[in-house]
Design goal:
- By secondary structure, the protein is of the alpha+beta class.
- A hairpin with a 6-residue loop joins strand 1 and strand 2.
- The mean pLDDT is about 95.
- Helices cover about 35% and strands about 30% of the residues.
- It folds into two domains: about 35 residues; about 80 residues, K homology (KH) domain (GMP Synthetase, Chain A, domain 3, 2-Layer Sandwich).
- It starts with a strand and ends in a 10-residue tail after the last helix.
- The protein contains three helices and five strands, in the order βββαββαα.
- It comes from Sediminibacterium roseum.
- InterPro entries: KH_dom-like_a/b, OsmC/Ohr_fam, OsmC/Ohrsf.
- This is OsmC family protein.
- It holds the Pfam family OsmC.
Amino acid sequence: MTTATIGSTSYTVSLQNGRHEFLSDEPLEKGGADAGPDPDELLESALASCTAVTLRMYADRKKLAVAGIEVTVKLQRVDKKTIFTKSIKIHGNVDDAQRKRLLEIAELCPVSRTLMNEVEIAGTIS
């Protein structure tokens, strides 16, 4: 569970999840202080980090010669559709078949699966 708290000035949000404290903010051009990633960047980060960890776990389990993994995610909104573009670079000695399998595994990360499934958001206010 994550809790977001914002005061009465700017758009800097304090986020706490019980183990970590971090910030989110809007960029300067949107009136924020740019003190942290904006909400869309946090969503991109969630997908990128989940993909990287999932690939690392798979590579370790299969003992693939993967020295490093770099995942870049870009979020775009086009009409009523949200498009995530994910670019993955595998550093190491892996062949084309292994790269193909790694791309398949990347789609199985929990955040990818959440974003590809039907999502329901229930809210309350007090």
